[in-house]
## 1
Amino acid sequence: MDSVFDELYKKYHHDVFQFLFYMVRNREQAEDLVQEVYIRVFKSYNRFEGKSSEKTWLFSIARNVAIDYFRKQKGWKDRLMEKFDWSTNQLKDDYPIPEEITVQKEEIQWVYKCLEYCNVDQRAVIILRFLQDLSIAETAQALGWTESKVKTTQHRSLKLIKKHMETFYAKEESNIEKVRVER
Amino acid sequence: MKKSEWSDREIEELLRHMPKIQDHRDPRDIYQNLSLKKRKTFPWVLPSIAAAAALFLLIVLGPKLMDGGPKTQYSFDQSSNKKSVEQNIAMKKKDAAQKDYSISKAENYDRMSEGPLKTAIYEDEIGSGKVITYWVPDDQAQNLIPVSTIVQESQNESWLDLFNEHMSQVNEDAWGLSEYYPINAEFKYDEKNQILEVNVPADHQYGQGAANELMFLNIIKKDIASNSDLKKVKLFTDGKPGIEFGNTGIETELIIQPEKNHAYLLYYPNNNETPYLVPTIESFKTIKDAIAAMKKDDPTNGLRKSMLFELSEKDMTIQDNTLHVTMEKNAKMKNDQITLFSFEALLLTAKEFGLEKVMIKNAPIKQIGPFDLSIENKVPIAPNLRNIE
């Protein structure tokens, strides 16, 4: 096996995989995409200048792979329609909730569902900052943004998640109420 | 505990507790898949190979498609004629086209060459050469067409030597006929008994199917009848007597009878404007009957009428091996290719009945191509001259 691959695998594979998993919210897709990441890494490994850390470099590639994947998902028809129809700006996915999440407590499940409402940038920031424990500076490097953009995006996404968490809670409450009334 | 309100910090905390997702696959598998995918880095290779193949096919098949069937060629000729020929002549052409499709075709041919050309082989053309006739099936394998060629004879070669020698040069494709020669058999002459031996290899295909065996036997018979005066042929398979045919069983010998008393009609091969003069399968009792048959198309065999002269039915006599026919009063005759074909068909039919010369009386014109109608014309040696190289 390639020594470069071996090293990258040992150090970063699971992080990259987890990042892609939460981005596309599907195990099979994540498995395919992580391959694509390796292919792109090998193509441009010689050009890696060491300006950023290997880890942030890998994440930036993984993010591009994910974005390309979302673009491919939408056919040219959808893309054309999107130009005219601004109400469907959200990127939605129809995959069922993965098994790893369903065994968790309810609040975790809610958070996972809330992530669906975030757009690609917001999701990337959330994953990098909280799931991968990257610093603001590292996140900015991986995404190629300024630190302040990272901060505002992070703030907005947290707010968005909070909002949707509350609606989930409200729904849950009303369900319980209904059950009580019916009794 | 569930809450109705969360702080940023609590959300962050929840996010941090999201389950860690791991890739369960073996790194070796992942690497192997990688190298598989790496190879697919030239997505243009397959399409370009396909494109090259398509281009190749186009080059190979293109010219054939361009030639098309006989229809396309015909229409092309017509349109080009209309443009090039004066209106006056075009009017005449229209009349001719109404009369007969084949006539207009032959007229095209006429204009393309310098003047009407004869197609059979005559005594004065042979010189020191020898005439060999091959009977070739047409492209529907319906008629056998005698194609003759003049070959130069080198020391003491018999007709059989020449026949064998030039068999492989028969160019059926270029003539618009079916591929048949060289015959997959060995022809040997037994001088003692004056018998020709035909020996086919053990794996010969000539016995498969009624049409196949009939054609083989007919071609052998006709080839030998028109090139020699042999009476008998013995058949062998791989040196052993007899050839097995599916329908007729084992045949050991053929009796050759001279081909006689047929009428000559015209056959137009596809893609070809020059017709062949072809003897009918049927034979006739008298030359009058034969000439009557020449005035009608034979659609079942794909043959067209060859006799365009308005000959008087009564004034048809034979004197000193010469056929005397008389044109009707006011009959028209043009010095063109189709008329020449007609005249040659008459000569060949006369030859079928053992005649040597033909005289047309009362002819409105004096000359058809190279033939002087004011004198008796000799019948040809063999029909349908084609060159073999």
Note: The mean pLDDT of chain A is 82.
## 2
Amino acid sequence: MVSKDKNRRLLLQGNEAIVHGALAAGCRFYAGYPITPASEISELLSVKLPQVGGTFIQMEDEIASMGAVIGASLAGEKSMTATSGPGFSLIQENLGYACITEVPCVVVNVMRGGPSTGLPTNVSQGDVLMSRWGTHGDHPIIVLAVSSVNDCFSLTVRAFNLSEKYRVPVIILSDEVVAHTRECMTIPDQDKVRVVDRIQPNVPPEWYKPYADNNRGVPDMASFGEGYRHHVTGLIHDERGFPTQQPKEIDRFLHRLHDKITKGFPEIVLSKTIDMEDAEVCVIAYGSVSRSAMMAVKKAREHGIKAGLVQMITLFPFPRKVIDAALRQCKAAIIPELNMGQMSREINRVNQSGTAIIKMNRIDGQLITPDEILKKILSVS
Amino acid sequence: MVVEAEVIRQEYLRHDKKFPHVWCPGCGNGIVLGSLLRAIHALELPKDDVVVASGIGCSSRLPTYIDFNTLHTTHGRALTFATGVKLAKPRLKVITVMGDGDATAIGGNHFIHAARRNINITAIIINNNTYGMTGGQYSPTTPYGDKSTTSLYGHVEHAFSIAELAVTAGASFVARGTVYHASHLDRMLEQAIAKRGFSVVEIVSNCHVQHGRRNKLGGAVKMINSFKESAVPIAKAKKMSPEDMQDKFTIGVLCDVDKPISTEEYNRIKQEACKIDDYEETHKRKETKVKRHEE
């Protein structure tokens, strides 16, 4: 049980660490559907959740999983699902529902090779833009990329906290390599884990307006069955939660939905830089590839090249500030990715300093090695 | 009766909601709404403990107007959301309202699995044989040969029988009623909501605007009255020949069985799982392995 686990040092794979992170963050409901390479998350949670009074259910498909996750969150439980490419396609429908109804929930997508059934047991980063734009309509969303077992724990906790605080679904992008790599990690004492819960209304029920704006732009959230009877709908709604077609109300609602994330940028947008102080060439990477990049940068330094690494942790909202600074500083930026260049397009979009953006893509189901990145660094410096 | 109707109107309708509702004059959905409120009133369920979830379509606008915890979800998915709500807070009374297309086309998979799972949820399915909101396309319950905006030459497929489907899929309680037999419907809904386990009530209703008009079935009054002829109580139907039952359907309770409810079964698992602390055990082994490795 979580409370008893004190500073345990464990050998875990990424998927297992996500489970530990979720439990530490207070996740008490999980609905999922079997899929490689995410199944371990379901399996472990099916054992652990009932032990802490939580609920696990295997639904008939991922559409249903996502529906159940939202339902449970509306009833007051912190909820999560985990899936991979094909399942991630299916959850998109209800993911949009969670965005518009502002229901906190966490979705783990362990990326595998696509499109379609693709390469179920191989690594890929092909779902990057889908995680941002997968569900229809303009919508706010937070996407975090994990690169290590430690990340899997800490970023899962972070994902739940952000989701609860901003009432927005948070996607954790993992990949087959991170998911199945075993590393040692220390699970912190539960008291040391910072846990954020959604803010519940403290007004009398008859005063409660479920979608009323406030200075945070995030309405207080009442759970079903607590006396605050209210309406939840996927239609655009007014501050009482009822459908509206008034242009003014629509405009105000959709702007608040996006603005609440903008207001939280300093807290939401995370990244890590290594050796960037005097870097002339930088590698911008995320997920498992950032591990190869870290090694490549280290080796480049040994060759006397001023190389640095920007590891993107929050992929969306796009970490413009840190990327912009890196591009202004360096003459070249290498973007290694396990896709056709989804993130390098995004980076190019903010490139105002004429820095050479060098794509580096692998789509054969294998991880990019440190040597490949090093070779690229050597070739541009 | 008049006094009671006024009490129900005052107590359960959302007066701050922008009435009028979206339904066409003469629509059966209003009769279902009244019947549902009478059933909940008769069962004396506290409003705070009732969750009404729906999908998409005319029928699914129903929860908007009533003063409970209401959840208007995505097309066909009402039961998945309801499952999450029920599992997270088993003390809540969870009722879903769906249409025929909603529950048996796009949500057909969720419907049969909810029945199989036997979670303590009530599914109300208003069957008007068409997709009314989107303009009258054929649904899984549109009769063979009927015209719709997507079968102007006559429908070439055969219809689902929703209540029978629910029985086969494993629901604990299945009943069928019509919007003509309103007081019978009150009783069916009352029994279904009170039932422990997955309960289904199929309600045969009219869409005179879409289905009725294209198939020359008459206006609202004629269509609703026709259910008086075509609906046969189950006991009576047993004595009738298949020929006599042609173009007719049964009403009443098709199935009422008691079997373990998965929510309650899961509670038992929770209580047992809490006692197991295999965690330390499993990981002690791994820990020693790690230590050895470090040495």
Note: The radius of gyration of chain A is 21 Å.
